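pasting for the record
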Amino acid sequence: MSKLVVEVLDASDLMPKDGNGSASPFVEVDFDQQRQRTQTKHKDINPSWNEQLVFSVADPKNLPNSTVDVVVYNDQKGNHHKNFLGRVRISGISIPLSESEAAIQRYPLEKRGMFSYIRGDIALKVYAICDPSYSAAPMHFEGVGVVEPQKLEDIHNKKLEEEVKNDAAKKKKKKEKERRTFHSIGTANTTNFHTVPPPSFSGFGFESGKPVTAERRSDFARVGQSTAMHMQFPGQPEFGLVETSPPVAARMGYRGRYKTETTYDLVEQMHYLYVNVVKARDLPSMDLTGSLDPYVEVKLGNYKGVTKYLEKNQNPVWGQIFAFSRERLQSNLVEVVLKDKDFAKDDFVGRVAFDLSEVPVRVPPDSPLAPEWYKLEDKNGEKVKGEVMLAVWMGTQADESFPDAWHSDAHSVNVENLSNTRSQVYFSPKLCYLRIHIIEAQDLVPSDRGRNPNTFVKIQLGNQHRVTRPSPNHSVNPIWNEELMFVASEPMDDRIIITVEDRIGPDKHEILGVLVLPVYAATQRHDNKLVNPKWFNLDKHSSAKEDEEKKEIRFSSKIHLRLTLDLGYHVLDEATHYSSDLQPSAKHLKKPSIGVLEIGILSARNLLPMKTSEGRATDAYCVAKYANKWIRTRTILDTLAPRWNEQYTWEVYDPCTVITVGVFDNCHVNGSKEEQSKDKRIGKVRIRLSTLETDRVYIHYYPLLVLQPGLKKTGEIQLALRFTCTAWVNMVNLYSKPLLPKMHYAQPISVHHLDWLRHQAMQIVAARLSRSEPPLRREAIEYMLDVDYHMWSLRRSKANFNRIMSLLSGVMAIGRWLNDICMWRNPVTTCLVHILFVILVCYPELILPTIFLYLFVIGIWNYRFRPRQPPHMDAKLSHADRAHPDELDEEFDTFPTSRPPDLVRIRYDRLRSVAGRIQTVAGDLATQGERLQAILSWRDPRATAIFITFSLIWAIILYVTPFQVVAILLGIYMLRHPRFRSRMPSVPFNFFKRLPAKSDLLL
């Protein structure tokens, strides 16, 4: 008979239960109605058991459909009183079939119910052993055939022999990497393991037609190079999330050595050797002219950092910091060599050497290490003339010197392009809406005094151009009374150019007057109160020669304007569906902070090589945007698995907001030409804060997906998220407040204008941030803000249609359920509905309480099925996995199109076909609404007469008959047995279908 072995190794950071900050844990394991337990570890929240529990497997064929329950308890008073400390459920589908393939895995402990407060993790090693004497029931896998247990064991042993031949150091490194990662718990559906049976198992994966959805946590979504299961599952969610648990301080409970790592507690600590080269003094002259062009080389193994050289300076000041990753240290000695720049060969001036074992360690928040003067030595260790001021210490990425340091990761980048590889924080400029109300003008002077001018007003603010409609009264005193809106940014010193023009003929205009004003001339307002308009003098647009001839101006034309800076609005610069900021422009109108969002950008893996033509892999960096704060990580050169381990923090003012993280390939590290230097997109992730639990740390690998030229997975990015609420009352109160500021509802802006203003705001943000150092490129900003979201996409239209149909499917399911009740498909359910119906009719005061109680029960029941992972981009919901390549090519086409006419004609015909179906559906909906209107509109006099007569009869019947009697009779009639039903449509349905609509009035 086969055996199942569960090795319970240890647990960490368990919840104290004895009131003294400790617990006495033990582990119970249940499998196939067999229960075993470990010993109790008294007063230890980090216990170590190292016990092996063995269970019998009655039917090896049913092992993939079984579940192993591992529960940790606190032994309170012997064996009769125990407190729940957490549990783990492992699906048999993830259990390897030999000890050689089993790996030690750490599982996070899960809650048992809504009010459980659990923390910590447990290390387990689970595997099955096939007894050679047990041959009566060979294991059968669909799609593979019959496999004897002994043969299967031989296969595993053969694989084990091959693994032993590998390099021992490489194997050890790989094993350490596996032990620091969490693997998703292998249940078929952890949220509904009782009611949903596990999927059938086959040698090549799950049965066709039953793919595993992304919401299910399963062990075959592996992290790293785990070997616990070598079989591949084609039905696995390729674009799903993978939960991990690297050794970050937030998961380690801040105990012991982790107390010093709380600054960057969501990322792995990366240690660096910092060398701060400050300055030098009293350097000797090396040239015949008595001058010296000094520079410093900092050498550590094969890595070398070089400062800039200073011409003819014997007391140079550099102030440069170098950072060498401890993981790449190739020497125990760091040398600081001072040299003299020369044409042929640089001269050696002196050096200072440090042994790494004697370098001090700096732990934030300690003050920075003070630099010291060191005497220079020659190559033989003798003191020479000159001193250099240095500071050398070991630190982490939490050191304040980290962002501005020269990194060994970017050792191949020249000094000119080094700034393009550094991390940086940016802030979007303050934006507000400028509203210009053009009322009227007076005393315009056209060139032809005998004609009435056809005037309009043109306004320019930066790159924004707007034009009013022509004045309805053609005179020298025109009236427009039209409002135009623009996006203005700080500092408010941009010029508003207002031009009054006369349309003389087609494409021929005459300027009648010009007005130039700064933006700060407009009146600021925070509500919808009207600002008093003002009259402004228009300058005559004339040439320089005419200005010399007419130096004296007797009178001036005037224009009546109302200029306001509306600070009560929120200026949208990103798509409204996933906005990261909803605050008004005015600072004093902003809501108080409700919490803090912390994000750790740990690493990425399996990135696609983006520079194969250059013989390189990928130079990856990340950009994250939330509210008005942008961050950019440093660039990790020439790797497909970069490790950033950088942590950033944002203040949160509204939980119903979205953070966006994008990954890009840096094309500016080698001084590329401008036309060839656009950073390439690798992918992005959006996460809505309201879907995150408070104070919970989420660490997952998120898939990076791109659509062009087809759906492609370009890699995975590992993020750590934590949303901490600091004001619970304010956060709950926000759910009763409007999403946008008050001005959006008191004086709303049309959707058309909002789209135009959003585009202008994005252009301003992109222009401003691209002038930073290092610049945040326009292509990255446009990708993060979805600049082309408003463009037509057949794929997105199909996705939205499917979303609507999925919502209607719920209504249709209710309709089918009612129909089954009326048709007596399930007599027991129908009888219960009869009883409930009679009770509610006899006691109508119970209707509303019953409805709300039913909603409460449904909500409590659905708590078991709540999402356990943060949301991510769904390829299936986006209709991206089934999109035709031509549809994607059309989606990413330029506007206007750049494709050949034949292809455009094909796409136009396809669009007509799709629009025709939409037109038919819209017409059907309109027809039903018009039939409802026709009941009492006398469009069909006979139908209206029949209806009002019927209404009068029913009014009399309902007046003399108790309501309960009528309701019971109608209900029993609707729930009557199918024997008393006719297959023909009912009378009310026939009457409604005969009512007239306006479809026959269409041309």
